[in-house]
Amino acid sequence: MSLVEIARKEAEEYYMTHGTSLTLRGLFYILVSKNVIPNTKSAYNGLSRKLAEARYNGEFPWYLLKDVTRRHYYLEPLTQYPAEPLAPEDLMKALEDYIDRYTSVSVNPWEDQPYRIIIVIEKEALLDLVYKFTFEVCPHGVYQLWTSKGYKSATSIHELAETVEFIPRSQTPVILQLGDYDPSGEDIVRDFRDRLTKLTNRNDIVFEKVAVTLDQIIELQLPAKPESLEEIEKMRRDPRYKSYIEKIMQLAEQDHRVASLVQAYGSYEIRVELDALVALHPDRFKEILKQTIEKYFDREIYEKVTKAKEENLRRKAEEIKRTSLELLKQAFKS
């Protein structure tokens, strides 16, 4: 079986199981974990070239890989055609349907909670997948999903600060961060915290890095060795490299699990991408999201306060609906 055929089989299986496409990085890590290709930069580039050619040739479906870093928008207005006249009975039905929608009730489950959650993702390419996984495991949802786009996007973090300002002062904003485990990925947590706190003038924001963490790397045996000398050199050029290595060295002295990890790779230069966790252990990733979000959701408040509010609103909506339908029927009779 060729590399393209194996890649297609793995991508199709992932899509059928989880209902969403992999990124190229995610598919690469799956193939590495199954010893199909080595964990090297050249192997990744080779996979990229082969799959690009295979997609153009129709050998690999386009939908099996996603890349949302390139967006486009339709600006041309659509042509709107006039509707046909409705018969009286159809008009009555249409108006009744409108009243049903007008009197529908929806209560935000987080409205009475002490916290409001925003998930911040370092990589935009994983935004859709995280959105899907979040609502699969947490039907109450979260306040918002956001992409941080690294250090450079001042506009992005300013927009997020404005979003945080909409959260009432009676509620504590919680920022759950998803990103790589490497010098920049770890320091972005601090940088993001400092900039967002400054822009919002709020000192009550809770920040938590959900993934990737060192504990997850150890527990799930994620591929932690940089792919190539080029990747290692890139790490070493990172201005945060020295403090990052010092942190790993200190942790290795304190925790035998970290020491074993360092010994296995023969280096303190540990690096794991978020794509690896999402692709290799999607169910565990979902569970991590679920446990973290539920930690900030007070179910007792939801059952006693929010559900009672929802029931009161439903009763009121039913009254409005009955009154509206009576008025509508009277209007048709006259």
Structural notes for this entry:
The protein has 14 helices and four strands. By secondary structure, it is an alpha/beta fold. The chain has three domains: 3-64, no CATH class; 115-223 and 272-301, Dna Topoisomerase Vi A Subunit, Chain: A, domain 2; 226-270, no CATH class. A four-stranded parallel sheet has the order 2-1-3-4, with helices on both faces.
List keywords for this structure.
single chain; 334 residues; alpha/beta; Dna Topoisomerase Vi A Subunit, Chain: A, domain 2; 3 domains; four-stranded parallel β-sheet; 14 helices; 7% strand
Strand order of the largest sheet: 2-1-3-4
Please write the CATH class name of the largest domain.
Answer: Alpha Beta
- Low-confidence residue ranges: none
Intertermini distance: 76 Å
Please count the beta strands (DSSP E, at least 2 residues each): 4
Q: Helicity range of the residues?
A: 55-70%
For the biggest sheet, the summary is: 4 strands, parallel
Shape: globular
Proportion of residues in extended strands: 5-15%
- What is the averaged pLDDT score? 87
Structural class: alpha/beta
Order of helices and strands: HHHHEHEHEHEHHHHHHH
The appropriate CATH architecture of the largest domain is 3-Layer(aba) Sandwich
Number of helices: 14
Radius of gyration: 25 Å
Might you state the CATH topology name of the largest domain?
A: Dna Topoisomerase Vi A Subunit, Chain: A, domain 2
Number of spatially distinct domains = 3
